[in-house]
Design goal:
There is one protein chain. The protein is α/β, with parallel strands linked by helices. The protein has 2 domains: 4-171, Thiolase/Chalcone synthase (Peroxisomal Thiolase, Chain A, domain 1, 3-Layer(aba) Sandwich), CATH 3.40.47.10; 178-330, Thiolase/Chalcone synthase (Peroxisomal Thiolase, Chain A, domain 1), CATH 3.40.47.10. The chain contains 10 helices and 13 strands. It has helices spanning 20-24, 31-38, 52-67, 91-98, 115-128, 154-157, 223-244, 262-272, 283-286, 293-303; strands at residues 4-12, 17-19, 42-44, 76-80, 105-109, 135-141, 163-171, 178-186, 194-196, 219-221, 254-257, 312-319, 323-330. The strands form 4 sheets. It has a 5-stranded mixed beta sheet with strand order 1-7-6-4-5, sandwiched between helices. A 4-stranded mixed beta sheet has the order 8-13-12-11, sandwiched between helices. Strands 2-3 form a two-stranded antiparallel sheet. Helix 3 crosses helix 4 and helix 7 runs parallel beside helix 8 (262-272). The two termini are 19 Å apart.
């Protein structure tokens, strides 16, 4: 089987930047409180009427341009998001239409913070077995429409932002370069620790007037539980990938962790014995963009010249489910 690699990368962030000081005007919080606990200084919010697939189409266009390809060169689309345009159909088909395409397959992946890495693993498998040659993988979110900007929701509302990142996956001409290994895990025993209750299909009807008043329309998070598991699982999965590849942490040139909370990533880096400067961070500017955070970060580091040919890049994420994953690639 051929190895797959990333052919092009792109990102798109809405223009509107929302600072911590702006959130201070909505509920009881402070810039100092947010920065100390999360590392976030501002995030981007999409305007009214903007869909998740709108952000995705811009990121996809830039990824194709970066790869030197046209939309018509794509064979398949994988769209990772927790904030789809609609409950159904999947957002991939809306993205396909906005890109002027028809006929190629589309698939949505709903793995929240690990969605991009799970999607990348699917694209890697498609290319490796020769099923498709050019696969678009997009992570995009419009969180700002589903956040509770009151004192009751502030612990979650301060964390999230909107944005999109995309990559084009294709065969590698050099078998030593590309995606080397991806490990994915989950533990559904903790599914209720970070979830949105509104789509409880066991209720008949599943949305009632009470849904709007009892808080089910807002995301809920047991923050301490998430933190405790994240700082354990992130080092575990990184070490398991490195062990399979007969490598050590010092062999990795750059870590691209999911941008959930700066303190989580700092703690994980400490446990791995990795200098903080090798754990890339942009959460201060964008907040948690869930499925979009890793491809956004990858686009930034490439643009800034932080990755060179043959560099080893470790991408790692932990999130709702609980799910966690890591993927190692040689650029």
């Amino acid at each position: 089987m051929v190895r797959s690699r990333i052919l092009g990368v792109g990102r798109y962030l809405p223009e509107r930047a929302v600072s911590n000081f702006e959130l201070e005007e909505m509920f009881d919080t402070s810039d100092e409180w947010i920065r100390q606990r999360t590392g976030i200084e501002e995030r981007r919010f999409a305007d009214e009427g903007v869909y998740c697939s709108d952000l995705a189409s811009e990121a996809a266009r830039r990824a194709l341009e970066n790869a030197g390809l046209e939309a018509e060169d794509l064979d398949f689309i994988i769209f990772a998001t927790l904030s789809p345009d609609h409950h159904f159909p999947g957002s991939g088909v809306y993205l396909q239409a906005k890109m002027g395409l028809a006929g190629i397959g589309c698939m949505d992946v709903r793995n929240q913070c690990t969605g991009f890495l799970y999607s990348l693993a699917v694209a890697d498998a498609f290319v490796r077995v020769g099923m498709y040659r050019r696969v678009l993988v997009v992570g995009a979110e419009v969180h700002s429409s589903a956040l509770n900007f009151t004192n009751e929701g502030r612990d979650v509302a301060v964390l999230f932002g909107d944005g999109a990142g995309a990559v084009v996956i294709g065969p590698s001409e050099d078998d030593s370069r590309g995606i080397l290994s991806t490990h994915m895990h989950a533990d559904g025993h903790f599914a209720d620790k970070l979830k949105l209750d509104i789509w409880d299909i066991s209720k008949k009807p599943y949305i009632t007037p009470e849904t709007l008043t009892n808080g089910d329309i807002w995301p809920k998070m047991a923050g301490k539980e998430v933190f405790k598991h994240a700082v354990t699982r992130i080092p575990e999965v990184v070490e398991s990938v490195l062990k399979e590849c007969n490598l050590k942490t010092e062999d990795v040139d750059l870590f691209l962790p999911h941008q959930a909370n700066l303190r989580i990533n700092q703690f994980a880096a400490y446990r791995l014995g990795v200098p903080e400067e090798k754990f890339y961070s942009n959460i201060e500017s964008y907040g948690n963009t869930t499925a979009a955070s890793i491809p956004i970060a990858l686009s930034e580091v490439l643009e800034n010249g932080m990755i060179e040919k043959n560099h080893l890049i470790m991408m790692v994420a932990f999130g709702s489910g609980f799910t966690w994953a890591a993927s190692l690639m040689r650029w």
